[in-house]
């Protein structure tokens, strides 16, 4: 597996502002993913973060709202733009490793509350 | 702190009992399945996985059963302990290597001492 950290662990933000969430892995990984988990719900994939190219977004998620960067094989960021209370969720990053190409390992999550 | 799974189906068991958590998956073409455990305030933790060419796989105190005919997956936990209390999610994917996961709705397991 891999050790994954996220910053911040939680935040309370005002509507209309943006927040950038960081995901750091302790080893080089192949794929990185960003998920949203709304209160009391399951996980929904936002996008796949590709190193050196644009992220691949799932239906219902757009780059203008959730811009993603992946400058190298150990780091990615997700920005939640122009936030509204409906964006209050847990945001999770996950990774595939070179030796575990199907299994995804998750970070601890970022708990976002938008007022 | 914020809790996950406030509105999820709940399974309540006594410590020492065996627990069975069920999951119906959606895609008949899915060929890889994972069970995750999510404790309050934490990210999902990998428990066990199974591929579609198997119908059973065992780990430490856990067993996953796969019934492809009815698209059903179950997680059995032997001698359930209070530390097993969490929300459990199944996830499915199709194809090999770096495929996206689709998660089920989750089940909250409550273990009473």
Structure in a nutshell:
The complex is a heterodimer of chains A (115) and B (113). Chain A is mostly beta strands.
Helices and strands in order:
The complex is a heterodimer of chains A (115) and B (113).
Chain A: E1 4-7, E2 10-13, E3 19-25, E4 32-37, E5 43-49, E6 56-57, E7 68-72, E8 75-80, E9 89-97, E10 100-106, E11 110-114
Chain B: E1 10-14, E2 19-24, E3 32-38, E4 45-51, E5 56-58, E6 62-67, E7 72-77, E8 86-93, E9 102-103, E10 107-112
Parallel strand pairs in B: 1-10
Antiparallel strand pairs in B: 2-7, 3-4, 3-8, 5-6, 6-7, 8-9, 8-10
Describe the structure.
The complex is a heterodimer of chains A (115) and B (113). In chain A, 0% of the residues lie in helices and 54% in strands. Chain A is mostly beta strands. Chain B is mostly beta strands and 113 residues long. Chain B is built from no helices and 10 strands. The chains are: A mainly beta (115), B mainly beta (113).
Beta-strand percentage range of chain B: over 45%
Largest sheet of chain A: 7 strands, mixed
Cα-to-Cα separation, first versus last residue of chain B: 23 Å
Oligomerization category of the chains in this entry: heterodimer
- From the spread of the alpha carbons, the general shape of chain A counts as globular
Helix and strand pattern of chain B: EEEEEEEEEE
Structural class of chain B: mainly beta
Largest beta-sheet characterization of chain B: 6 strands, mixed
Given helix and strand content, the structural type of chain A is: mainly beta
Give the % helix of chain A. Answer: under 10%
Average pLDDT for all residues of chain B: 90
Shape annotation of chain B: globular
Largest interface: A-B, 29 and 29 residues
Along the chain, the helix and strand elements of chain A come as EEEEEEEEEEE
Q: Output the radius of gyration of chain B.
A: 14 Å
Q: Are there runs of chain A of 5+ residues with pLDDT below 50, and where?
A: none
Q: Poorly predicted ranges of chain B (pLDDT <50, ≥5 residues)?
A: 1-6
Strand content of chain A: over 45%
Summed up, the helix count of chain A is 0
Distance between the termini of chain A: 36 Å
Number of strands of chain A: 11
């Amino acid at each position: 597996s891999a050790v994954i950290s996220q910053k911040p662990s939680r935040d309370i933000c005002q509507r209309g502002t943006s927040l950038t969430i960081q995901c750091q892995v302790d080893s080089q990984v192949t794929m990185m993913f960003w998920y949203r988990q709304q209160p009391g719900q399951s996980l929904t994939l936002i996008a796949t973060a590709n190193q050196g190219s644009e992220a691949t977004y799932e239906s219902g998620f757009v780059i203008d709202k959730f811009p993603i960067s992946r400058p190298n094989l150990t780091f990615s960021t997700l920005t939640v733009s122009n936030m509204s209370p409906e964006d209050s969720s847990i945001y999770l990053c996950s990774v595939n490793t070179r030796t575990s190409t199907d299994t995804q390992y998750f970070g601890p999550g970022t708990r976002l509350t938008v007022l | 702190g914020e809790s996950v799974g406030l509105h999820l189906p709940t399974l309540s068991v006594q410590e020492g009992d065996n627990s069975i958590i069920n999951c119906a998956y959606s895609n008949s073409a899915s060929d890889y399945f994972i069970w995750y455990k999510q404790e309050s305030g934490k990210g999902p933790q990998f428990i066990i996985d199974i591929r579609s060419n198997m119908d059973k796989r065992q780990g430490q105190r856990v067993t996953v059963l796969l019934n492809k005919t009815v698209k059903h997956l179950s997680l059995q936990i032997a001698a359930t302990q209070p530390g097993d209390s969490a929300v459990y999610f199944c996830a499915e994917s199709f194809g090999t290597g770096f495929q996206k996961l689709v998660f089920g709705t989750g089940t909250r397991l409550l273990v009473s001492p």
